[in-house]
Amino acid sequence: MNVGLRKALDLFANLRPVVNLPGVPARFGNLDLILVRENTEDLYSGLEHEVVPGVMVSMKVITRVNSTRIARFAFEYARRNGRHRVTGVHKANIMKMGDGLFIACAKEVAREYPEIIYDERIVDAACMHLVMRPEMFDVLLMPNLYGDIVSDLCAGLVGGLGVVGSANLGADMAVFEAVHGTAPDIAGQNLANPTALLLSALMMLQHVGEGEAAARIRGALERVMAGPAGRTKDLGGTATTSSFAEAICAVL
Fold first, then answer.
1. Mean per-residue pLDDT for 80-87?
2. Which of 181, 211, 228 lies at the terminal end of a domain, its last residue?
3. Which residue is catalytic, options 10, 32, 138, 152?
4. Looking at the structure, do residues 97 and 79 belong to the same domain, yes or no?
5. Could you confirm whether 77 is annotated as catalytic?
6. 214 is in which domain, residue-wise?
7. Both 209 and 115 in a single domain?
8. Which one of the listed residues 44, 77, 118, 146 is annotated catalytic?
9. Which residues contact 118 (CB under 8 A, 6 or more apart)?
10. pLDDT of residue 147 exceeding 90
11. Active-site hit among 77, 91, 99, 146
């Protein structure tokens, strides 16, 4: 369903901020990363076929138009939000044509933003650096598959998918979602952690110009999360879904 929505509405940019929340156990502190993922092509194009029995081919589609617009999105975001570095993540040493085109487009766009540092990392090296020295990165620009994998890796650095919001953005449409699954095993038990959904909603408020409201709710969230009574069980706390919500409303 998510892939269908992204294609139908041309939501070409997936934006995922990765930021520490107070009181949430994490591998690193003071992280503030922005992940920008191309959302419509690459191996997610769904072009697969069986060549002969037992041999399957999946097509990796990289185009100049989509690589250029996601690169421009990343640099525009960096400019608007006072970010200083954009890092292109790729495997062009092996996929010289596909990933090579993606990186070539990023380099072309980078020339239009001289105030922003542009550099590149091969995806495997980027993953190693992320788990050793994530503070060296600022904005990460990635094709679809690498973005899917690396964004979950980065969520793990700050406490997991339950504390990271996400936006899927197009030219005139946007869909905001928690990036984790639906957790049917705990449905109806008042145990689910709503933090990622709330953070996604705050991104939506910012997107529609309600930045002041988003900041107020974010402040309330941080105050509630600071103590174990405000965190749900998955984060080492004692709160239920409803008591978490009630605590944020009380702070507001």
1. 97
2. 181
3. 152
4. yes
5. no
6. 183-252
7. no
8. 44
9. 85, 86, 87, 88, 106, 107, 110
10. yes
11. 91
The pLDDT of residue 230 is above 90: no
Per the annotation, the verdict on 60 as an active-site residue is: no
Note the pLDDT of residue 229.
85
Of the two residues 120 and 7, the one the predictor is more confident about is: 120
Residues 65 and 133 in one domain: yes
Q: Does residue 10 have an active-site annotation? A: no
44 is catalytic: yes
Q: Quick check: is 91 catalytic?
A: yes
CA nearest 14: which of 134, 157, 205, 152?
152
Report the pLDDT averaged over residues 167-175: 95
Rounded distance between C-alpha atoms, residue 5 and residue 116, angstroms: 32
DSSP-assigned letter for residue 18: E
CATH code: domain of residue 145: 3.40.718.10
Secondary element (H or E) of residue 15: strand 13-19
The tokens describing 72, both together, are 């421009």
Q: What is the pLDDT of residue 21?
A: 93
Out of 96, 107, 119, 124, the active site residue is 124
Instruction: Indicate whether 152 and 210 sit together in one domain.
Output: no
The whole-model pTM stands at 0.93
